[in-house]
């Protein structure tokens, strides 16, 4: 098990995190009272059914659509808050976030978002925001592949702006170390426990070769303690992701149950077989004494993981854009 090697490591980590907390103001919801379960009770009482129906069709057609919608919601909330800015297309007067480093080659699901929004507009024109739609669709995505249900407070507004700069800065990357990752979550008002739970969504995710090449040709064997049992899987990963080329080839981040939302993903970390460096850091980093305990807990107790994941999703979903906004009629463009 990965723990701090001594008191000095523990103190260094504590000092480092103290610096992070002093340097970074927490981002909180603009006004929690603006989000409620009854926000659309009179204006669009059928909105959840509309979203659920479309998500059922999409996940039935391709289970990977669940991960796509969940990831869209994550990437939306980490830039300006949960405001639908991730869905905006570039125009002559607006540069969107779709070409950010963590979005340009891997963020998908935009056409499915368009389809759901069209159905909502037919049901209740100009009523349900794109940001709320993503939050509901992400919840339904998780439920449809075996994960937990949670109530989603709604009432978010869609931003009239996007930020490519913030997308490049704020969205965690696969190559970043544990302290950087924790600080990025802290910036959003999410603690290390929230981080481990939310990263657990990788139980249904896929990663591009470009994002795990350094891992499998780097310290992969060291984190598995050179276990012969891990060699067949490593060989398979190297077939999918050669040292040169194949950047867009993909592999499941949960090698056990890629199509099901469960806690098996945490077993891959305990075995040292995490696909992404950023994920394995939560278990193997010398600074990861607290995150390693949480990983171990969720591996042993799926109910604890499901409960914390639900709570953390609500917490993340409560991050709103302080600038406010509108309810877009088309999620790709601001209203004219």
Automatic annotation (TrEMBL):
Its cofactor is Ca(2+); heme b. The keyword Metal-binding applies. Ca(2+) 1 binds at residues 76, 79, 81, 83, 85, 97. Disulfide bonds join 44-124, 77-82, 130-331, 209-241. Ca(2+) 2 binds at residues 203, 254, 257, 262. Residues 1-29 form the signal peptide. Heme b binds at residue 202. Keywords: Calcium, Disulfide bond, Glycoprotein, Heme, Hydrogen peroxide, Iron, Metal-binding, Oxidoreductase, Peroxidase, Pyrrolidone carboxylic acid, Secreted, Signal. Substrate binds at residue 172. The active site is at 75 (proton acceptor). One of its GO terms (biological process) is hydrogen peroxide catabolic process. It is an enzyme of class 1 (oxidoreductase). Its EC number is 1.11.1.7. It is found in: Secreted. GO terms for molecular function: heme binding; lactoperoxidase activity; metal ion binding. Belongs to the peroxidase family. Classical plant (class III) peroxidase subfamily. This is Peroxidase. The gene is LOC102718089.
